[in-house]
Amino acid sequence: MIAVLTRDLRLAIRAGGGFGLGLAFFLLVAVLVPLGVGPEPATLARIAPGILWVGALLACLLTLDRIFALDFEDGSLDLLATAPIPMEGTVAMKALAHWLVTGLPLTLVSPVLALLMNLPAQGYPWLLASLLLGTPALSMIGTFGAALTVGVKRGGLLLSLIVLPLYVPTLIFGAEAVKRGAQGMEAAVPLLLMAGITFGAGALLPFAAAAAIRVNLR
Amino acid sequence: MSIWEYANPKKFMQTSAWALPWVSGAAAVCLVTGLIWGFFFTPDDYRQGSTVKIIYLHVPAAMMAINAWVMMLVTSLIWIVRRHHVSALAAKAAAPVGLTFTLIALVTGALWGQPMWGTWWAWDPRLTSFLILGLFYLGYIALWAAVDNPDTAADLTGVLCIVGSVFALLSRYAVNFWNQGLHQGASLSMDAEENVADVFWVPLVVCIVGFILLFVALVLARTRTEIRARRLAALVARERMA
C-alpha cells in the first residue's frame, strides 16, 4: 500500500500538470472574485469563507479525473487489481495521494488567499482547520466518483455532475465553520459535523469505490 | 409462490400487461376526481386566497419525488444482492419519472411562492434540498446513459444510488442547518395541530393516491419498454453473431 502511495505521489510530481493545476486554479478564483464583485474590503470579508471553500472544492474537482483514468488506459489498474492488496486499500491510498497533492497544498496556501480576500483575522485558524479536516472528504468522494466513471470515455463532465451534489454537505459545514469563526461566533459544531462526514466517507466510501472499480474492470 | 417470481421478465411482462390498464385507469380516476374537487369545489383559503389550490399538485409531486428515490434505492439493493434484471430496469425506469416530479414540485412551488412570499425562489432548506435532489437524479440518469454495457451500468448506478441516498439525507440536514427558511412545516403529519383543514384534506389525499398510482403506472410502462428494448438488443446481437 505504501508502494502504491509513493508511486502515485512520484507520478503526480514528475508528470507535472496536475500537481500545480489545482493550486493555480485556486489562486485564479481568489483573483477573479474581487475583480467580479468589486474590491470593497467589507464585501470581500463577508463572502471570503464561501469563496475560499468553493474555490478549494472546484480546484479539487479539476484534478479528479486523473486519479484512475491514466492507470485505466495503460492497464496498470488491472495490475493493481490483481496485486496482493485489497482494492479497498488501493482506492484509499489513491485518495490519500490525491489529497496530498491537492488538498494539503490548498490548505497550506489558503491563508495567503484569505489575506487577498480580506478575511477577518480570527477566521484564519477556522479556515485552516476546516480545510484540513474537510478536503480529505472531497478527495475521498471524488475518488468514488472517479471510480464510477473510469470506464466512460470523456467522463470528466459526468464526473462533475455526479460528484457536485455529493460535495454539498461538506461545503455547507466547512464554509459555515469559517463564517462563524470569522464573525467570532462558536464554530465547533459545523466543524465537528464536517469532520464526521470526512471520517464517515473515509470509512465507507473505499468499499463503494472498490466495488465500482471491480465492475469497471470486469 | 413468492414475490421473487415477478423478477422473471416473462412473468413480470404478463402480470404488468394485466395490471397496467387497471392502475392507469385508477390513477386517472383519482387524479381527475381529486383535482376537479380540489380546484372547483373547495373554498378559497382565508389568507392565501385561491393560490392555495396549487397544493393539489405541489404536495403530491414533492412526496412522490422523494418516494421515487426510495423506490430506486430498494430496487438497486435488490439488483445488487439478488441480480434480478427487472429490478435494475425498474430503477432505471423510475429515475426520469422522479426527476419530472421534482421539477413539478419546484415549478409549482415557485408559482405558489411568488404571490405568497413575493419571490420565485428563496435559498430555503426545503427548496435547496429539492434542487440538490434534482441534481442527484440528473447524475444518476447521466450515468445510466454514459455506460454502454447494461449490466455494468446497472451495477454502477446501483452503487451511486446507495451512496447518493446517504448523501441526499446528509444534504437535507446540512441545508437545514445552513439556513432557516420560509417554507412551512409538514402539513400532513399525524398530530393535527399543523394540519390543513378538512375541506382541503380529503381532495388532497385523493390527489396523493392518484399521484402514487400515476407513478406506479408510469414505472410499469417504462419498465416494460426497457425490457422490450433489452430483448431487442439481444435479438440484434444474435442476428449479428449468426
From TrEMBL, chain A:
Chain segments annotated as transmembrane: 12-37, 43-64, 96-117, 123-150, 157-175, 187-213
Query: What keywords does the record list, in alphabetical order?
Result: Cell inner membrane, Cell membrane, Cytochrome c-type biogenesis, Membrane, Transmembrane, Transmembrane helix, Transport
Q: What GO biological process terms does the UniProt entry carry, in alphabetical order?
A: cytochrome c biosynthetic process; cytochrome complex assembly
> Which Gene Ontology CC terms are recorded?
plasma membrane
Coiled coil segments of this chain: none
InterPro entries attached here?
Cyt_c_biogenesis_CcmB (IPR003544), Cyt_c_CcmB_bac (IPR026031)
Predominant subcellular localization, coarse grouping:
membrane
Q: Name one GO molecular function term.
A: heme transmembrane transporter activity
**Record localization:** Cell inner membrane
> What membrane topology is given?
Multi-pass membrane protein
Per the entry, what this protein does is: Required for the export of heme to the periplasm for the biogenesis of c-type cytochromes.
- Please state which protein family the record places this protein in: Belongs to the CcmB/CycW/HelB family.
Q: Name it.
A: Heme exporter protein B
TrEMBL record, chain B:
Q: What is its main location?
A: membrane
Sorted alphabetically, which keywords does the UniProt record give? Cell inner membrane, Cell membrane, Cytochrome c-type biogenesis, Membrane, Transmembrane, Transmembrane helix, Transport
| Transmembrane intervals | 20-42, 54-81, 93-112, 127-147, 159-179, 199-221
Tell where it localizes.
Cell inner membrane; Membrane
Q: How does it sit in the membrane?
A: Multi-pass membrane protein
Is Transport tagged as a keyword? yes
Query: InterPro entries of this UniProt entry?
Result: Cyt_c_assembly, Cyt_c_biogenesis_CcmC, Cyt_c_biogenesis_CcsA/CcmC
Cytochrome c assembly protein domain residues = 5-183
Q: Where is the signal peptide?
A: none
Biological-process GO terms, alphabetical: cytochrome complex assembly
Question: GO CC terms for this protein?
Answer: plasma membrane
Q: Is Nucleotidyltransferase one of the keywords? A: no
Question: Where is coiled-coil annotated?
Answer: none
Gene Ontology molecular-function annotations: heme binding; heme transmembrane transporter activity
Q: Which purpose does this protein serve, as stated in its record?
A: Required for the export of heme to the periplasm for the biogenesis of c-type cytochromes.
Q: Which family does it belong to?
A: Belongs to the CcmC/CycZ/HelC family.
Kindly provide the name given to this protein in its UniProt entry. Answer: Heme exporter protein C
Please tell me the species this chain comes from: Neotabrizicola shimadae
- Gene that produces this protein: ccmC
